[in-house]
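User: Please predict the structure of the protein below. I'd like the answer in C-alpha cell form so I can feed it into my own downstream comparison script.

Assistant: Understood. Taking the following sequence of 266 residues as input:
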Amino acid sequence: MLKADFYYPQPNMQWLVSRFETIKSDINEDCLSDSFIPRPDIALVFNFKDNPEIRSNDSMKLPCLLIASITEKPLNLSISGEIDSFIIMCKPTVLTRILEMDIANQPFPYIPVVNESLLNLWHNLSNNKSDSERINIFSKHFLSFIDSKYSPDYIDNIYEEIIQNCLNTNICEIAKIADCSISCLQRNFLKRTGVSMIRMLRIARIYTVFNIMISNNDLKYQNILQRSNYYDQAHFIKDFRQITGKSPRKFIKENTDLCKIISGIN
C-alpha cells in the first residue's frame, strides 16, 4: 500500500520550497494508475527505487532524477513495484533562477537533469532513508547556493501575487507590479516558469478551487463561483475541464486516494 507524507519547510527554506512530499511502498505494489492534476509549482523528483511511468499514446518511464515542469493538462501516472520517491515542490521562478535555467522551450512533461550538483545530491539522499534526514540534506545543499538571504526579483513577486491572490485578481492588475514592458514581462515569466502568466493564473485558480471542493465536499456551484471569483458557471466548468480533464461533478465522483497522493492534495 502506498503511503504519502507531507512536510512544510522551515522558515530558512520557504524562499524556495512550498512543501516536501514523500511517496513510499515497502512491498511490491501492483500497478496503480490515476490522473496527476496540474499544479502551479515545479517539482524536483528523486526516485530511489522503481520509477513511475506516464501513460499516454507512448508510455514513458520517468528517470530517477527529474524536474517536473508545470503541465497545462492532466497526465495519467502509473506506479508499480517498490516505491521510494522524495519530491520537493518548489517555486518555479526561484528554482530556475538559482540553477540559471531557461525552461521556456524545455521538453514536456519533465526536464532532464544534467546539473552535476543535483546528481551528487541524488546519491547523498539515496544513502539516507528517513524523511527528516533527506529534508536536512536537501536544505543544506540548496542553502549553499545563496551567499545570504535570497532576494526576490519582480518575476518572483509576480508569481507570488498569482499564487496568493489567484481567486481575486487578474493579469492587468498583476502586470502593474513590474516596471517593464508587457512583452518583456511575458517573455521573462515564460523563461522562468515554462507557462504564460494567464495560464499560470488559470492553473492556480483551478487547483485552489478543487482543493476547496475536496476539503469541503462542496459541489454547489453558487458557493464555488462566489469563492473563486468566476463570472459564470460555464466559464468555471470550461476551465475546470481543461485543467483536470473532467467536469467538476465527475472529478469529485471519480476522485481517488491515489489521485490525491500523486497530485499533492491533502
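That's the full C-alpha cell string. The chain has a mean pLDDT of 82.
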